[in-house]
Inverse folding.
């Protein structure tokens, strides 16, 4: 157990990245009861946005906070626009369709983005610019905290704080919560559900954009299929915490990151992907609504 | 009409299609022959998933996992048989490989039963995710099992060789064609008859209203698990055929995308329409190939982009799938009826009968 502290730090930093992506899943699910399979590919597109922004603005060699902010903004804006367009063009025409159809459309959008990415950007992995140095900041007897871990944690916490304010302190956040509870009643109260749904997609996608830059810094490899696995795990994290529940998503994501790091550290790294699904199945079988979710009773 | 022949006189249909296969063996090149086999494998996958998704109303996203189990079990058994007992050849090989597919299907059905028992308590999206999870776990386990090749994949899977009957040589393709056709028809007839039996009506009632079905004395969990196990059985069979036909298995060929392919076949054809699944399997297999000229035109691989784009459009424009929940013969009959009515109306108009205003 000597490396426990180190694994704990790594897991926390991985978990906070999962949290950013899981929030996008859980917000959309909370409002539309839709597993937005395209979310992981929005995240992938965000990574490419910042990659190309860095290339065109020649930021590859300029380390420092300004370039980091530029990358972050380009990814956020790119993802937000993409998320808005996806909802507007693919999901809105299906608002009253059976759930399965929307799910298939989501899978279709996901495939569309993946294949577009493959033919536009190419299959070969690209190297994400290292705009922030990764130096040891804090060294203990058995662990090292790197600067990137701090950046990941700091940015995530800041984002979560902003999100919290947005959802619980503003009118649009109140409208979002209202629509997720009951769309029809919310619209009777003067909320325009379509606009709120658009806003949710924009917000969730922007979070994925933040996540993509953080992942790009920590694991500097960008490729069109990078979203699949991480998206799946983030989604599982959202289900683990109770899908539709914001704090549940964060809790689930942190648990997920920690347990994954522990498995890699103490068991075998090849089983890390199976672990995620194993956790998911165990949770769903014994507590189907997730850790923080409430189970709804079915009315006849 | 032709579908009624399949359900009532499957053997006749089998022989008729066998002749088609023989012709294909004579005139088509190996690539097209391979496409035909792939098409039939997709048909089995689509129809079997339709039993769970379309008829029993349970959304499964893990069909590839059961196919993988079937494929790997079958390939390993053939390997063991070859090394311990010796090569199988001659007339014995067709029953041998059909038997292998049967065992592979049994293994997949067992897995389906084990997976289904706990997870079919869940509904909708949750069930979809759990089945997806099981399929991924199966894939990761295969990836880490060195005995079946691990990440490198399973090479040199034994398959039937050319069959010599005196002067007559039955080619490998024709044998595969016959075996696959046998399974396609068996799958079709089984499911077709099943959903018209008391058991199958139970599945439909579980799909339409679970609580009402329960009130009518149907053990809903049992019904779901049975549908799931039978569906997994045929997925395993498809895996076995795939393994011996392609001769190479790799865990990555049973990923999420293959499950999605099966779901797309079901939804495109129409949930609860077997002939729709056949039609959709044909489209899903052929569209990427038919779009090849487009690829030559543009220089980049845009086939899958168009394919996924069509998928989204389809969901928006025709959400019930090509056939809805009807079978092709019904649709044809309805079409013929409306056409006749339309013709009669036209005829009436031409004879100059004064139109009587309706009161």
């Amino acid at each position: 157990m000597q490396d426990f502290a180190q694994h704990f730090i790594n897991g926390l930093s991985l978990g906070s990245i999962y949290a950013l992506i899981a929030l996008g899943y859980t917000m959309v699910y909370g409002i539309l009861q839709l597993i937005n399979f395209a979310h992981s590919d929005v995240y992938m597109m965000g990574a490419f946005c910042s990659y190309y922004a860095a290339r065109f603005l020649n930021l590859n060699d300029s380390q420092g906070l300004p370039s980091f902010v530029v990358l972050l903004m380009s990814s956020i804006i790119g993802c937000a626009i993409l998320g808005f367009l996806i909802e507007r063009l693919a999901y809105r025409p299906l608002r009253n369709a059976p759930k399965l159809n929307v799910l298939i459309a989501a899978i279709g959008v996901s495939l569309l983005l993946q294949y577009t990415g493959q033919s536009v950007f190419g299959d070969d992995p690209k190297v994400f610019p290292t705009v922030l140095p990764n130096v040891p900041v804090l060294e203990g007897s058995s662990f090292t905290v790197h600067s990137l871990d701090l950046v990941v944690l700091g940015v995530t916490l800041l984002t979560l704080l902003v999100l919290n304010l947005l959802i619980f302190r503003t009118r649009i956040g109140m409208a979002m919560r209202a629509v997720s509870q009951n769309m029809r009643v919310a619209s009777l109260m003067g909320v325009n559900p379509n606009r709120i749904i658009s806003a949710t997609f924009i917000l969730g996608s922007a979070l994925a954009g933040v996540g993509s830059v953080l992942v790009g810094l920590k694991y500097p490899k960008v490729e069109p299929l990078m979203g699949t696995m991480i998206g799946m795990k983030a989604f599982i994290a959202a289900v683990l915490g109770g899908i539709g529940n914001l704090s549940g998503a964060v809790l689930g994501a942190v648990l997920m990151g920690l347990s994954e790091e522990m498995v890699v550290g103490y068991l075998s790294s090849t089983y890390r992907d199976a672990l995620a699904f194993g956790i998911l199945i165990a949770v769903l079988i014994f507590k189907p609504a997730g850790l923080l979710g409430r189970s709804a009773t079915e009315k006849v | 009409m032709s579908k009624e022949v399949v359900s009532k006189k499957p053997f006749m249909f089998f022989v008729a299609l066998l002749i088609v296969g023989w012709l294909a063996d004579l005139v088509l090149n190996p690539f097209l022959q391979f496409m035909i086999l792939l098409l039939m494998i997709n048909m089995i996958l689509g129809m079997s998933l339709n039993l769970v998704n379309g008829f029993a109303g349970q959304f499964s996203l893990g069909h590839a996992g059961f196919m993988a189990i079937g494929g790997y079990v079958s390939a390993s058994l053939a390997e063991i048989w070859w090394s311990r007992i010796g090569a199988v050849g001659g007339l014995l090989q067709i029953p041998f490989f059909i038997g292998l597919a049967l065992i592979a299907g049994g293994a997949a059905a067992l897995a389906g039963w084990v997976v289904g028992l706990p997870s079919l308590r869940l509904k909708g999206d949750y069930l979809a995710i759990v089945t997806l999870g099981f399929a991924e776990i199966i894939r990761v386990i295969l990836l880490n099992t060195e005995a079946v090749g691990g990440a490198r994949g399973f090479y040199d899977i034994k398959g039937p060789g050319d069959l010599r009957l005196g002067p007559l040589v039955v080619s490998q393709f024709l044998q595969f064609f016959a075996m696959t056709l046998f399974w396609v028809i068996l799958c079709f007839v089984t499911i077709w008859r099943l959903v018209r039996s008391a058991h199958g009506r139970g599945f439909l009632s579980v799909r339409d209203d679970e609580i009402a079905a329960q009130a009518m004395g149907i053990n809903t969990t049992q019904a779901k698990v049975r549908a799931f196990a039978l569906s997994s059985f045929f997925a395993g069979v498809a895996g076995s055929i795939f393994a011996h036909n392609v001769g190479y298995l790799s865990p990555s060929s049973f990923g999420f995308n293959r499950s999605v392919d099966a779901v797309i076949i079901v939804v495109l054809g129409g949930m609860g329409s077997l002939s729709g699944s056949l039609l959709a399997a044909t489209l899903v297999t052929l569209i990427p190939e038919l779009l090849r000229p487009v690829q030559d035109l543009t220089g980049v691989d845009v086939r899958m982009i168009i394919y996924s784009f069509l998928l989204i459009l389809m969901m928006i424009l025709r959400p019930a799938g090509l056939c809805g929940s009807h079978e092709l013969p019904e649709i044809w009959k309805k079409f013929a009826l409306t056409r006749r009515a339309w013709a009669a109306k036209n005829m009436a108009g031409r004879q100059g009968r004064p139109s009587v205003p309706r009161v």
Notes: Chain B is about 75% helix and 0% strand.
